[in-house]
Every structure is written in C-alpha cells, then in structure tokens.
Amino acid sequence: MRYLTFGEIMLRLKAPGVERFFQSPVLEATFGGGEANVAVSLANYGCDVSYITVLPDNPIADACIAELRRFGVCTRLIKRGPGRMGIYFLEGGANQLPSKVVYDRAYSAIAMAKPGDINWDEAMDGIDWFHITGITPAISEGAMALSLESVKTAKSKGITVSCDLNFRKNLWKYGKSAPEVMTEIAKYVDVAIANEEDVQKSLGINIDVDVESGKLDTDKYRILSDEVLKAYPNMKMIAITLRESKSADINGWAACLNDREKFYISRRYEINDIIDRVGGGDAFAGGLIYGLTHYDDKQKALEFAVAASCLKHSIPGDFNRVTLKDVENLAKGDASGRVQR
Amino acid sequence: MRYLTFGEIMLRLKAPGVERFFQSPVLEATFGGGEANVAVSLANYGCDVSYITVLPDNPIADACIAELRRFGVCTRLIKRGPGRMGIYFLEGGANQLPSKVVYDRAYSAIAMAKPGDINWDEAMDGIDWFHITGITPAISEGAMALSLESVKTAKSKGITVSCDLNFRKNLWKYGKSAPEVMTEIAKYVDVAIANEEDVQKSLGINIDVDVESGKLDTDKYRILSDEVLKAYPNMKMIAITLRESKSADINGWAACLNDREKFYISRRYEINDIIDRVGGGDAFAGGLIYGLTHYDDKQKALEFAVAASCLKHSIPGDFNRVTLKDVENLAKGDASGRVQR
Amino acid sequence: MRYLTFGEIMLRLKAPGVERFFQSPVLEATFGGGEANVAVSLANYGCDVSYITVLPDNPIADACIAELRRFGVCTRLIKRGPGRMGIYFLEGGANQLPSKVVYDRAYSAIAMAKPGDINWDEAMDGIDWFHITGITPAISEGAMALSLESVKTAKSKGITVSCDLNFRKNLWKYGKSAPEVMTEIAKYVDVAIANEEDVQKSLGINIDVDVESGKLDTDKYRILSDEVLKAYPNMKMIAITLRESKSADINGWAACLNDREKFYISRRYEINDIIDRVGGGDAFAGGLIYGLTHYDDKQKALEFAVAASCLKHSIPGDFNRVTLKDVENLAKGDASGRVQR
Amino acid sequence: MRYLTFGEIMLRLKAPGVERFFQSPVLEATFGGGEANVAVSLANYGCDVSYITVLPDNPIADACIAELRRFGVCTRLIKRGPGRMGIYFLEGGANQLPSKVVYDRAYSAIAMAKPGDINWDEAMDGIDWFHITGITPAISEGAMALSLESVKTAKSKGITVSCDLNFRKNLWKYGKSAPEVMTEIAKYVDVAIANEEDVQKSLGINIDVDVESGKLDTDKYRILSDEVLKAYPNMKMIAITLRESKSADINGWAACLNDREKFYISRRYEINDIIDRVGGGDAFAGGLIYGLTHYDDKQKALEFAVAASCLKHSIPGDFNRVTLKDVENLAKGDASGRVQR
Amino acid sequence: MRYLTFGEIMLRLKAPGVERFFQSPVLEATFGGGEANVAVSLANYGCDVSYITVLPDNPIADACIAELRRFGVCTRLIKRGPGRMGIYFLEGGANQLPSKVVYDRAYSAIAMAKPGDINWDEAMDGIDWFHITGITPAISEGAMALSLESVKTAKSKGITVSCDLNFRKNLWKYGKSAPEVMTEIAKYVDVAIANEEDVQKSLGINIDVDVESGKLDTDKYRILSDEVLKAYPNMKMIAITLRESKSADINGWAACLNDREKFYISRRYEINDIIDRVGGGDAFAGGLIYGLTHYDDKQKALEFAVAASCLKHSIPGDFNRVTLKDVENLAKGDASGRVQR
Amino acid sequence: MRYLTFGEIMLRLKAPGVERFFQSPVLEATFGGGEANVAVSLANYGCDVSYITVLPDNPIADACIAELRRFGVCTRLIKRGPGRMGIYFLEGGANQLPSKVVYDRAYSAIAMAKPGDINWDEAMDGIDWFHITGITPAISEGAMALSLESVKTAKSKGITVSCDLNFRKNLWKYGKSAPEVMTEIAKYVDVAIANEEDVQKSLGINIDVDVESGKLDTDKYRILSDEVLKAYPNMKMIAITLRESKSADINGWAACLNDREKFYISRRYEINDIIDRVGGGDAFAGGLIYGLTHYDDKQKALEFAVAASCLKHSIPGDFNRVTLKDVENLAKGDASGRVQR
C-alpha cells in the first residue's frame, strides 16, 4: 500500500512555552502543514508514504525536507521553484485566552506554482491512496489548479482520494470563494473529512448547529453527513470530527463516520490539559487513512483515528509524534495515563 | 485622557517554569510592581500613561525603564536616587503547592526617598487620573509620606484618584500599621479597589467571611462595600475582586462594583490552568480604570476589568500582555479558547 | 535518630518539558532512585540520613554524589566498584498519553556487586532506621543477596526496617521471581509500604480489585492489609497508597495504614495538573518514616506522608524538593494554593 | 539636534549560538536593519532620533516597533501598509566557516510601498540630520522612488544627509543596477559612508585593491576617497571603513575620513573573538553621525565611530547595545578588557 | 557509486556550551560515532550511502536511526539485537583545559553481537566502497570478528576498503591488543587513514616524532607512510592527518597522502577558535572518500578532505554539517570567513 | 589538615552567555565570593575545609548553603542574621568590551553583623589554616571588626593566616580607607597574596609599574615583594599574581612568590579565549594554599597555584570546577588541550 499527500508545508515559528510573542527573543522553529502532517502520521505507523509540494531552493527548505525524511516520509517528489517558504507564527493559549496564528504564507513557492508544474502522472505512479485538503486550493489560483489536476489524475488512475475540507477563512483571497472550488474538488473525493463548519463553509451545506457552542447532538451529524453524501454520489464516506471547545486547555473530542450503510460514532475523550491543538485534525485524517486501510471494521478505523488525534493534543508541534502502539493502546481503551515502565 | 501611576517597580526573579528555586542555575528576570503593572495595562489598551517612581542609577534600573518604554509607558518622570532596586524572588506553584514570594526590597530607592523628593505639582500637570496602591505607603516612612503628598496634590488639582488597597502583611515594618495610614489615604480616593482581606486589614472594616474558603456570597460583598462607602463619603465607588482559590492552578474569578447607586456583579470565570497569578489584581485595576474612562455603562466597565484580569492568569510575568481586542472579545463572551487563524 | 537507605541511584535523562524524546537535542539530566529519593526527603525535613550504594568511579557518579550531598544526605558510605552508572530515560505524558520510562540500568555497579562487598555491620553502626525497596533485589542476583544481608544485619542490630515493596515488572530478569525473594525479605520488615499491585505481585497476596480502574473501596484495603499482617507476624504495620489514575495529569491520591490495632485512612487529594509523578511513592515512604519517628499519632504520621507525596506531584524530578513547613501546612489542611508572600 | 533614519527593518532569525540552521528546533528572534540599527545607536548615546519605515499591521510588526521603542527610538512616524515583514535568517560562522544570511525579504511592506506613500515634508519637520543607506533603493522600484524623494526633500529643507552606500549583490532585482540609482542619490549626500567594495559596486569608482585580501594600504583609500569627492561636489566628506577579514572570528578594523581638507586615519583594532559581525558597519555610521554632531574635532569623531563599531563585534544581535561611556572609554584608548567593578 | 560504513553509533551526552558536567541539570543529546560520522559526511555531499550497525530495539535507538535518516543516510541495513545503546559523555574544553570523554559503551548491542549476526554478502550487494575504523575491532571479541568478516567479504567482492586506524587506548579490553588485530585487518585495506599515533599504536610502526609537541616535520611523515605501504603491499595509499595541538581552542590542521607514486601535502589551516574537535578525523575520512571518488587529481582530493575536516572544527556535534559547496569554497582557498549574503 | 575561610558570598546574576543585561529575560544564577571560592577550590582538591559567613534566613540563602555543601565544603559554622543576601550582577565582555560588575551588596547580613556575632574561638577549634581577603573589611565597620577579631584569634591559636589583599575601589564606603585597615590586618598575616595594584592601594606600597599596561618586569616584582616583607616582619611570604590584560579574551597569566629566602617565578600561560575571569585570583589563592600545605617545594606550590588559576579562566562561574588531577596535569606541563578519552 503506497500513500501520497500533496499540499503546503510551512516553517512554524512559535512563541516558547506559554509565552506571548517576543516575550523572549526566541521562537520555537519547526515545520508543519495539513498534508505533511498526515504524511508524518502515516510514516509513524510504518506506512510507505510520499509527500509532494513545491519549495524554494534554500537552506530553510532543505531543513524542512530533512525533517520530513527523519520521520521516514519519502521526499523525492518534492519540487523546487521560485517563491518563498511559507511561514506561520503561533502563540499558544491557555484557559480563556485563545492561541493565535499569524500567517506569512503569501508568495510561497506552492502559491506561485502554475498548472503543469507537477507531472501528476509520474508522481502518482504506484500510489494507492492520495490525500489532499481544502487548504491548498485556498492559497492561490495556481495551487487551486494543481489541486484540481491532482484529484482528476488520481481518479483516472483508480487511486482512492481523501480530502480534509479544512476551511480557512483568512485564505481564499485570489478571487474564488471556497464553495466555488471545493464543490468541484469534492466530486473526485472518495473519503471526505470535515468538521461541521468545513461542511458549511466549503460545500455550502448547512444544518443549524452553533459552531461556537459545545454540547453535541449526534442526530444532526447523521443528517449533515447524509446530505453531503447525497450531494456527492461519488463519495464513499464522510467522517466528521466533533470538537467541544470549553477553553484553550479543555476540549471534548470525538468523531462520527457515515459510509452510506451505517453511521458510526466514536468514543468521546475529555482532554483537560491541551499541550498543542494545532494538527489535531490532521492527526485524525492520518489515523483514519491508516485505519481504513488496515482494519476491516470501520468502527475500529474510526476509533483508531479518534485515539490518534486525541493523543495529538498532548504533543507539541504539528506532527503527531506517537507510535502505532501508543494509538492502539488508547483505541483499546487504556486512557489512565499510568507511567509505563 | 492622561493617566499617571506611582509606586515601586522591582526586578522579578523567578525560578524557571515549574521548577523550585535553584533547581537550575537560572532565574527568569523581568520587572513588575502593582502600579507599573497598571500603567502597562493602560498603555497596552492604547492609553497615554506615565509612571513615576524612584530608581537607582545603574544598568539594572536602566533596563527596567527600557522595558516600560517598550510597552509605551512614558518614563520621563522617573527619578534616580540613592538606594537599591527592589527585588522579589518567585517560585511558581501547582496543585496544592502554593507559589512563593521572597522579598528583597528593603533599602530600595523608593523606600529611601523622602517627602519633597518628587515635585508632585509638576508631575501631575495635565494628568486626569492618578493611581496608587496600598503597597507604597507600606514600604517606608518616606514612601508613605510621598504617597500622602501625591493623593493630596491630585485631589487639589481635581484629578480622579484610584487606589488598590492591596494589603501586604510582610511590609508595614517601619512603625505604622496599615489602618493608621490607609484610612487617611482613603479620604482622597475616588475609586477604591480591594479584595475582602484588603478592606479588613487596611481599613479595619470587617464582616465575617472566611478569606481562605471558597464559595462566594454576593450579599456580603454588597454589605461590605456599602460600609466602606459609608465610612468614606468622598469615595465615589468601590470595586471588590472575588477570588475562589481551589488550588494553585484552579481559581474562580469575578468582581463586583458598588457606585452608591447600584451594585454590579460580573460574570464569573473558572480558570483551570493558571499560568501566573501574580499581577492578576493589577490587571483588574488597569482594566477598571480603562473601562470607567471608556464606557458609560459601569457593568461594561466591570466586565472589561474582570475579563482583563481573567486573561492575566494565562500570561507569564507581572505585565498583562493582552491587546484591547483580546479583552473585548472575552468581555463579549467568547471564552471558548478556539485557535484564532 | 539516624537513618540509612540502600539501593540504586540512576542518572535520569528526561525529554525537556512536554516534549517527546529527541524532539529537541537535549535531555534534562538529574539523578534519582527509590531509596535515594527517600534519603533526600528525610534530609529535607532536617533528619540525619545516610545513603549507601555502589557506583562506578567516574565524573558522572561524582556528580551524582555531589547532588546528594547538596541536599544534606551523608554520602560517606557510598562504595565505588566495577560496572556502569544505571540510567533511565523518561518522557513526560499528558492527558491520555502516559509518561514512559526506558531503562538502561543493566550492568550497573550495584547490579554487579557481590555479597560481602558491603560491610553491613560497619555501615549500620549507630543507625536507628533502615529503609530498602523491592527494586534492589529485582536488579541482579548480587543485589538481591546484598539486600538480604542488609535486612538480616539490621534485624540483628535491632534497627527498624522499612520496605517499599515497589514491584517492577521489567526487572526480575536474573532467574528469580519477585515473590520468591520478597516473601523472604518481608520476614525482616517492620514497616511495609505498598500499593495494591505491589502486594499482589511481590507477596502473592490477592484480593480482587482492578488496578487499572479508579474508584477506591477502603474495605478492600483493610482486608488486604490484614492479610499481609497475618502472613508476616513480624511486621508491625503496613501502609497502602491509593492512587486513582484518571489521566496522566489527573490523579486522586490517598493512603491507609494498618498497625494491627487500627486502620487509618488519610485525607484524599485531587491532583489536577501533575507536574511529575515519578518519585511520588518514595515521597510517601520518606514522609511516613519521618511521621512515624516524629509524631506519636499514627493518623498524623499518615497525613504527613500523604501530604508530602501529594506535593511531590507538583515538583519536577525524582526528589521531593519541599520543606518540612510546606508539608506541615498541607497536612494541616491548607490546600488552597494561595500565593505566599 | 533631531535625527531621522529611513529604511527596512527585518525580523532576524538566527540559529542559536554556534549551531547550524535547525540543529536545534529554535531560532533566536530579534530585529534589525541598517537604518534602524543606526537609529538605535543614536538613541543609545542619548540622541533624539526617529525612525521611519513601512510595516504590516500584525503582532510581529507590533513587537518590532515595541523593541525600537525600548531603546528610546521614536516610532510615531512608522506607517502600516500592505505586504509582509521582511525576514532574514542568519547562521553564525567561526574560523574558516563564514556566517550566512538567507534573505526572505521579498514582498515586504516597504518593498510594496509606492512613491507618495510617505509625506516626507511632514516627516522631516524639525529634523536636522537624515540618514539613509544603499539597501533601501535596492529593494524595489517603489522603495527606490521613496529613497529619492527622501533625499530630495531633505536637501530642500537644508537637512544634512548621510548615506551608507552598503552594496548588497543579492538585491537590485527589480530592473535597475546599483550605479544607475546610487549615482543619482549620491548627489544629495553630505556625508558618505562606504567600504571599498561599496564605492566600486555602487558608484562605479574603482582603484585596484583586492577586497578579499587583508593588508591595508592607506594611500589607496586617500586616492579613492578623493575620487569620490571629485565626482560628487556636493559631498562634504566620505568615510571609508577598512576591514581585514582574516577569519570569521578575527578581523582587523579601522576607518578613514576625507573631508576635502584633511585625510584622517583612525586607530586600528584587532578583534580576535568576533561575537557578531552583522551591524558592524551600521554601528560605525551611528558612531560617525554622533561624533560629527558632538565633537568639533573630526579625528575624535572618527575615533568614536571606529570604537563604537569595534565594540559592536562583541555584541550579539544587530543593535549596538553599548553606552556612550563604553564607546568614549575605548575611543580614549582603554582596550584592555579588564573587569569593571 | 554506493558507499557503506560499519561501526558503532553512540548517544552523545555533552555538558551544555562551555559548562562542566552537571553545572546545569541538562545534557546536549545527539548521536555520533566514527563510521556514522563518515556516512553523514558522504550523505551531505549528495552521495548514496548506507550505514550498518547493531542497535537495541528501544525509543532511543529509534531516534538515533531517525537522525541518520534526516541526513539522507540509508538505515535499512541496521540490525536490532540484545544489548544497550552505547553512550559517551563529553565535556568541552577551552584554552589549557582539555575536553573530556567518559565512555559508557560497554555491553552495547554491537559489542554483544556475534560473528555471523550480519549477512555481509547481502549487506554489501551493490556497494562500491566500504569504510571501517579501528574502533569497532577494539570494542569486543564479537565486534572484532564482525570487522574481520566485513573486510574479507568486501575484498572478495572487489569493493574498495578504507580504514581509519583510530587508536583508542581505553578500549581493547577484551584480551587482544590493537596491533594483534589491526595488522590483520590492514591486509584488506586499500586506503588507510591515520595520524601518527594511530600508525604507531595500531600497526606498531614507529619513527621518533613526539605526539604531544607541535611543529611538523613533513619528511618524517613521508618516511612513516612509506614504511606502512612497504609493510602492507595491498594498500594503495595512506593519508596521515597532521594536528598541531596548541590548546583546546587553537590547532594547526593539515594532512598528507602517499599513493606510492607521490607524496602530497595539503594546505595548512590555523584554527583559532575550535567549536568542537570531536569528529574532525571522521570529517577528514568522509572528505577523502568523497574526494578520491569524485576528483581525478589526488591533490584536490586531499585538499577537499582537509578543508572538510577544517570546517568540522567550527561545527558543534559529531556530524560535519557542511554542504558540498562550503567545502569546495574553502578548498579553493576562501578562508576569509566573510559574511555570505 | 583543616582549613577555614571567612567572608561574604553573594548571589551572582549574570547575563546569559555573551549577552548584555536583559537582552534575554533571564539571568544565570549562581553563587560566589572570594573566600567561598577559595573554600570550594580546597574542597575540590579533597581538603577538609569549612566556610564561615553570615547569611539571612531565607530560601535563597538556603540554596547558597546547599550549593557549597555540594562541593563538600562544611557549612555548619554559617550563621543566620538580619540583613540581605548580597548580590552582584555580571555582564561578560569580549575583545575590547570589558565585563562589568554591578554590586547590590549593601545591607547584606555580613555587612550588618557586629563584632562579637561570631564566636571565633569556637569556630577556629581544630583549624590549621585560616584564609581571609581584603574584601570583607571593605564592606562595613562591623565586617571590618569581625575580620580583625578573626585574624587576631587565629594568630593567638597558632593558626597560619593567609590573606588575599584584593582591593575593591567601589567598597570602603563606611568611613575607613583601605590602607587604614589593611596595614593593621597585614600584621597578622603569614601568607599574603596580591597583585601589584592591591599592594599599592591596600598597603600603600608603591613602585612605578603601570597597572594598565602589559609587559612584565619581574625585577620590579622582586623589589615590590621585598618591600612588603620588610614592612611586615611577621609575614612569611608574599605571592604576587601577574596578569597581562590584552583584551577581555586574551590575558597572560603568571605569578611570583617571595619567601624571604628565594624569589620564585612561575611558568607563564597565554590564555586566548577566556571563558570567565571572575574568581581567577581566588583560584590562585586556593591553589597556593593547597600547594603550600601539600608540597615541600615552593616552586611546585607556586606552579600548582598558577595552573589552577589558569584553568579557572576556562570555567564559567566563580567556582574553580577542576579536579586535583586537572591541575596536576597542567602544572606538569601538558597545556596542549588534547581531547582526553
């Protein structure tokens, strides 16, 4: 089984620990981005996964590629092109204080890439599963075109396509709205992943649940997922993540999956001391792709995905630095946090 | 609108992170002190604020002044004089372990200052609001005399005077007790700020609520504030902060305000993962001064103050490094802590 | 009153803060081990305590000895011998992610020590209380023999012997099982300390309580302790610690003590933001030994021990860096975590 | 005397200490840029100095402005506009390994600014000295136009104009070459500052000295400076810095000044353990401007400038964190480095 | 061209910066070992290189392998086996204070490996160049046997064999002396690398030059290398590194190469501010292997090797984190250390 | 052989690494002071040494005492009294930039101690060697009186007294000048230690050598020491340290000793990359006391002292963290700085 993910990876510059920006003259410097995060998850579980993007040809991008290689992600397909390395600045939050992202990703190499810059036919040779998100088409006209090329090629080669809708309100600045593009991309998607807001803002499908509030109503998610599957007959299934945001530290976390035959609901986790929320959704996507390709039982696949993303909240950085065994243990039900020795 | 605050600013030396003193051979070195903290809050909200104190003429005091300037606080009135820079050592706490303050502030420049060392008439030229606390008069005979001079001058110039009673049991060592002095100062105060213990220990006004325990009884605070206002006919209003200390990490936080016409009670926040409690009261004072001078509605002013101080608990250091927008968002009710991107 | 503890001390190499191993190229480097941790606790409370072990003759072991001396533990009895300094690697956990210990303690100097390498008669000269744990006899044939020698000598000299049963499933690799050895050692023990799993795995005494689950049932512990005391007529008392592991951050913590006359149950603490769990049991043992030798009242001794170990959860590192006063304050009931200034 | 400097300030992201990029997942994060560095120098010497630039409206730029304010630089003239905050990545060098700069400054707010975006007439109101460098006109067509506007306005208002020619071969990408622009700007300059390469690459004036080699030949610099002054009759004087680069740690450092009347040569410093070379030239410019406006004696002014920039090599970061007294002491000849206590 | 190196890689635990052991409770934690260092060098220059060793199956060894992968070294041949991960502790030196290595490498997985544990025939499939050092056979009887197996297999498959003699006086504890083993291994070596002490202590070939003293005498090295080549007729060439140790910071560095036809002497570098000397010899070996397989000119190959190892002295850690271009620039003669921007 | 030293120990707060004060919000926090530094040196060499001082009763002083205990210094004689813990702030220098000390030691416990506060008779029971410096009598009237008491008691008990004259121009503020006091103390001194400036400023004995300049003239030191010995007939010998301060990084270092019979001159060390100069003189004193009490040969004693203090320049912090073997190796002549493994 070979996997490929495509999207933007950025330099992530975070104020250290619980500090505000420039409280100390230091930034924690790592790398991350939705699709790269998914690739790292799959590599961590022992999968053969490649990641493709466009990066500039400089030492910062070299370090980024080396970091991906460290996790065992194959980086041979990565292209170098004009433009910058995208950056995002991050300030952690706590209690009632939200964490903040400041994007500096304009003019990145992937944003400046043009249709045809990637030979998708070659890149997808031997690939079984292709993953993309709703972030890449939001970056620029060119990245959108590349995204469309990618899913079309994948489809034509019989590759399973998963897509995390991932709506980002501060992107989509090149003249197209999210629904204009995402409704087109969705036609090529086998496995959709989303939260409720994504469904609404990317696909324009609404049912009235207040995103800001907390308590879940699983019936609504069943209805919502049914509507998406009705709108996209090609789509084999959709998974919806259910986050209850009580504070920057305390979240409830669960997910559901609708595969047209059955509506699965996962165990719900209470996370009381969130270390880093960023990448939680990507950890879910990575876990779900792993689960769907390694378990026959969709409930098990969903539980693996939710456990994986639950653990991500305890790990600093975008990447979900867990082992297969860590996730399996939690998915099996051991959430006691006892010291392992 | 121009503001002035007066008091002592100290070098704050904290054991790093969650460590005990000298567990590592390093101390986090910042600056802080009640009245300076209030000035920084006001500057952060975009106000034109000056801070006055007496500091020695050495590179440590220079750095302190530079740090205040960084936040936009006007430091031109600061005087240099004989004596040291006050220091306080701080060890963070967690759970049942309290954080600890070790004072090394004896013989500071402000403690050694004498009446007449500050030309209050000049310093207060053009000032609309003057803020002081009960800490300065607790330091030394001289600082007490300067404090008295300051409020009298302010009064004579028609400047609004606010005072955070701030009782500190380990000060008041120069021969006067807190009530002897504070009952005199209180006569010049328009806006008093206090917690219940401050009222009791500084003004000698008691009603029987156990400071150490938790659950609030708002009626008591109405009565208590009424008594203070009765005792000080000049006082236009008093705000009382209501902290429920469940552990070093978990506090309930709210406040009330009595303006002789109405008794306002704020929303109550549960803070579950306190980052730094020191300066929480000063953040309230800063927020209240801002609120009272920017909102017509006293409930809104109080909510702003409580939101501001609630956020302070999530920020390391004495200074409340929040933006006006951060506070407004929380005061409006968004406490979900969702990532802002 | 002079105390002696005997066992292995290791170099403790922890991933910094909340990071996974090698997320940064740095390890927090301290020292720790069950019996040394107990010695440090006693020294912190002002007791005259010695620690005996076998260490290699190199700068890392020198630093370890210096660190013990720093706390006031007498290190003059420590022997140097062939073999390594044992190491354990530690990764902190959070929420549902457990912390992990990776042992690298094989071939340590104490593991390679042989019966007769320590002159117990001399070492115990003037000693009133001797403490050992179930870890040392688990290390190697030689360490087991030395452990047996030690308790026999102590007994013969009328020294009170305490033993923390401390079952470690990844040790016991030299050919003997835990019960084979520990049932023999237990014959010389005056004060046994254990959790339920220890009793079961070390002494083979079971009653059916699920170790992984949470809610306590104090009756069971009364019965369990009665059975141990019945099996070991020499044993004067047994204390059992009661941990409810809700997550890596949140634990309930309490203990009980059975002295054949009465069954004491301590106050129960809810610890919501665990800083470091490792050494929590040792802090209990240290507190209990102090309590039993300084209070006539066993309830008070038990409360002291539970308060001490409760505080340990808020302190990074193996050693319980608290003062006598810190523990006394909590044992007396002040768990509010208010800033002390 | 009021000073104004204009140019780009960047976020400076440096690999920590002597490490290569991403050897640790951390970057030292400060700010710097030629003209801002000059402003900080002047502020450090107690001068009334303003800095003008265009920055985006985000928290990173806010922190940059706060940092300038910290040093006492007036930041009120700084404009906010579309575009990014420029960044440069820096890796320190040692011995034969050069330090490396990776620019990420394309599309910065100042690069995207247009002629007319700054009201130079207002900005220069009350200013006596205006400083610019050859970096700003190298950034973009717009920045070049703003630079030209600035020197013309200054000239028309009788303000003294200084310009550090500062040739940067990796800029000048918008279609104009350095000499095309700089020969025009030079017509408005009263005080030129340069090293030999700058003169050659910016003004196209050559004499044959090998830039890479070491040993100085002062006659050549006399001739070179004479030629520049001949070419620009408006120019009152030119200072040339003389760096002998023996290794990344060891440099000789001196300068000369030609004021048409006399050719001054400074003392020469051997710097054997360079801490940070970046900003050394700016420290010279700042020192020279201070010297020329505070000393009647040009030799003294030059010695002050060389001493100031010599000291910069011992200070990490772009800014020359020295006091007036530090520079005066060295300029007077105390280079012994004895502990001051 | 495919390369393979074989040997032990250790966890390297260094006191931070210039500190002594445990001056701070932290150790810099990286990985290194002679043959792995050579593999990293080759990977950095863009070569296709594999590294083979035996490591335990635990998270520390996993991190070690990930780190090698980061540099692009192929780690697929690495075997897991019983035993520990070898460790070495390092304290940096300065001036007259030498840096110190404390080995904790006994009982490592490679030390406990047995002949036959590695299938050399498979491992060397497709390999053109095999590199080994004199450290591996010094570790244990088993590692020695594996080393002999490796060079014999390489020889039989027509693979070029290079060997860095690398004498370590604190190893060789299993019953064989260095010359007993190394004279046998040398028979299979095509390219020998050594310093004078190595030749003497490993091969027993002496000429009288004092290792501790400084000034070089190139004639001696010509004679010495001639003698080695005479003793080992199979050997095609020998390179000898020439270090002049003036202090922990200041070393002269050069090398010579004798290929039976000609005696080449490299440029000599003065390194005045050594950052990290460990791995300097390995950087030479890596550079020489690269040079000999990429340049026809042996002088150029030697200059590349010396430049590479010269640069290593400016880089912290065992690995030579330079690029091909860095080395080429220095080999071409630019040692000025000017900032590259 | 038992040693005792008496003086002030301070909290030492240093800007990290090469940074200026508050460039980062952190201070390196250790402890140091002339006489404590000497005690640590002696303890490091294995001597039985006590240190006596007066400290406040707070957690900072507790940590200071623990740190001394870590090195094996006996701290039982240390008294607690009113007053502060003295502090000194330190900024490292480099090249032409001197390091700077900012004292905050006024009102320290030892400064506020009174004659009679220490029972010298008891403290000196069993002591063979007593060491003091010229710093203690410079602090305050009381500290001066205690110093005089101490040397008189020592003399009366036949204890050898050593004194490092150590002139500090920023102390001596209580009304007495250095010569007024030091000429009295010198009468009780057996072994005097000084540099030329100390002799001149403390004892008022001059010969014309320029302290600021470099090149040594050993004849002058012979004459100078002869004059001191002539003035103090009780004095058995005087050692004079000879520092050539070329820059903050580069110093020459040597010493001479005059024992009335012979004038010894030590080897001279060139130190090119000074890590920390503070405590260099104390390291000499500690080394000399060790040497004089362990070697019959005074040349050897002097070489030991100079080697010890030479090494101190390579060690951060006040304390000379070297082993006996480190010093012996250098004293024997190995200054090559080769890696020890």
From TrEMBL, chains A, B, C, D, E, F:
Record-stated family: Belongs to the carbohydrate kinase PfkB family.
SUPFAM superfamilies in alphabetical order: Ribokinase-like
Matches recorded under Gene3D superfamilies: 3.40.1190.20
Residues of the Carbohydrate kinase PfkB domain: 23-312
Native species: Thermoclostridium caenicola
Alphabetized GO MF terms: kinase activity
Pfam name, any one: PfkB
PANTHER family: 2-DEHYDRO-3-DEOXYGLUCONOKINASE_2-DEHYDRO-3-DEOXYGALACTONOKINASE, SUGAR KINASE
The protein's name: 2-dehydro-3-deoxygluconokinase
Keywords for the protein's UniProt record, in alphabetical order: Kinase, Transferase
Keyword Glycoprotein: no
